[in-house]
Amino acid sequence: MSTLRTLEPAVHFAPELLLKAQGIRIVFFDVDGVMTDGGLYFSEHGESLKRFSVLDGQGLKLLQQAGIIPAVITGRDSAPLRLRLKALGIEHVRFGTEDKHPAAAAMLQELGLDWSQAAAMGDDWPDLPVLQRVAFACAPAQAHAQAKALADHITTARGGEGAVRELCDLLLVASGRYVQLLDNVGTDRAHKGASA
């Protein structure tokens, strides 16, 4: 007979970081360089191809289960991106938006939230106006120096390789929901269709 191993939290963040990340209700994510590795892949027919991390996908689903809204504001638009966001159930999206501050402000107004309840993750200059205003700013490991300079947290993972999941885990721990969600793993309480 096998012994069931106990699930204990395996992620840890500095207390001051968790304190700063408390009260977050919405997270704005860039796509290229954050949800992807930032590379632009084109087929012979000129179609854009993107690679996404399943670790990131699971983190985004967990955020939603915790009542934290993942929102995407991106300067590009593509069929693969739309398919991925739809599969993850992400409803708050702005495609083809280079000027991200007004898009984020409009989303906050629509949802009855303000900047003090928002976090953001970006990697380059178009993301700076949003990173400047949110309560909690994050940049992936390979982000441009200007994005890193505004970040409260720089992930150890690179964009498209688990950086989004790292921020999701941090926010889940800060919200006090990480342990509860972990306790639901493998039980009837877990959400169905949790595949990322």
- Strand order within the widest beta sheet: 5-4-1-6-7-8
The parts where pLDDT drops under 50 for at least 5 residues are none
Shape: globular
- Structural class of the helix and strand makeup? alpha/beta
| Average pLDDT | 92
Biggest beta sheet summary: 6 strands, parallel
Helical coverage, percent range = 25-40%
β content, as a range?
5-15%
Distance between the termini: 31 Å
Radius of gyration: 17 Å
Per DSSP E runs of 2 or more residues, the count of β-strands stands at 8
Number of helices: 8
| Helix-strand topology string | HEEEHEHEHEHEHEHH
Describe, in plain words, how this protein is organized in 3D.
α2 runs parallel beside α7. The protein is built from eight helices and eight strands; from the N terminus they run αβββαβαβαβαβαβαα. The protein is globular, with a radius of gyration of 17 Å. A six-stranded parallel β-sheet has the order 5-4-1-6-7-8, with helices on both faces. Strands 2-3 form a two-stranded antiparallel sheet. By secondary structure, it is α/β, with parallel strands linked by helices. The mean pLDDT is 92.
